[in-house]
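Structure in, sequence out. Go:
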């Protein structure tokens, strides 16, 4: 009899533990990112207050920054005058948006790109703007 009593007492403790575990699981599910969502990365406004324009030293802007996969770059510019092309290394070096690259070209004036790992190259495709410094090579870890 007494044994049974203890048994049922430990049984209800077990139920409490199980309920607690279920709550913890529910909390973990709520805290976990939605399936398919990447961990939120940092967001960088390219050129800070100057934005994306001519005669900014983007090498200097990059100095001291470390980029990780999933970070975002925001290109802010006047779309009357500029665009953003995500080009190859060659496109970056020679300041050309080659059809061969099939480079994505953005023209909204406020373009956000999510960076995958690797080195990524962005230039302005308007003639002579890349030569005037509108070029950015970002190493992403
Ligand atoms: C872009 O520049 C043009 C010409 O100077 C100007 O009229 C327009 O308001 C500018 N647009 C923005 C979003 O600054
Ligand atoms: Cu430009």
């Amino acid at each position: 009899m007494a044994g049974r009593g203890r048994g049922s007492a430990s049984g209800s403790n077990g139920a409490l533990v199980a309920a607690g575990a279920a709550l913890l699981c529910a909390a973990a599910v709520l805290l976990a990112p939605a399936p398919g969502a990447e961990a939120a990365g940092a967001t960088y406004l390219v050129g800070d207050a100057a934005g994306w324009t001519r005669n900014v030293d983007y090498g200097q802007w990059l100095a001291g920054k470390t980029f990780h996969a999933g970070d975002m770059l925001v290109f802010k510019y006047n779309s009357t005058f500029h665009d953003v092309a995500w080009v190859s290394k060659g496109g970056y070096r020679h300041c050309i948006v080659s059809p061969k690259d099939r480079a994505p070209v953005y023209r909204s004036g406020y373009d956000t790109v999510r960076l995958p790992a690797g080195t990524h190259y962005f230039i302005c495709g308007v003639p002579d703007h890349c030569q005037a410094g509108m070029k950015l090579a970002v190493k992403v870890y």
